[in-house]
Prior knowledge:
The chain is mainly β. The chain has helices spanning 76-79, 83-88, and strands at 17-23, 32-38, 42-46, 52-56, 60-65, 71-75.
Amino acid sequence: MPVTPSNILMHELIGLRVKVVDGTHRGYAGIEGVVVDETMKTLKIMNGQKRVKSVPKDSCKFRFRLPDGVIVEVEGSILVGRPEDRVKRVSKRWW
Length: 95
């Protein structure tokens, strides 16, 4: 199943391009690159100079670029949790 804006929370984030658009600490805003690792509370982002920055999920807003070029903004607090549990989580449908 391809990654889409409606199912991004149930997919693996590693390998997606990301940019931090907002954060509680001004040093996080503007960090961009490729997600290389994900833990329960952080995303590890590799920038163009091959440096890895660890960014907390709960205090930032992220802008992901999906493989088909679509851009999706996700509130980091929604991503908090172990990645393997988040992928298995059944999303609530409101229709």
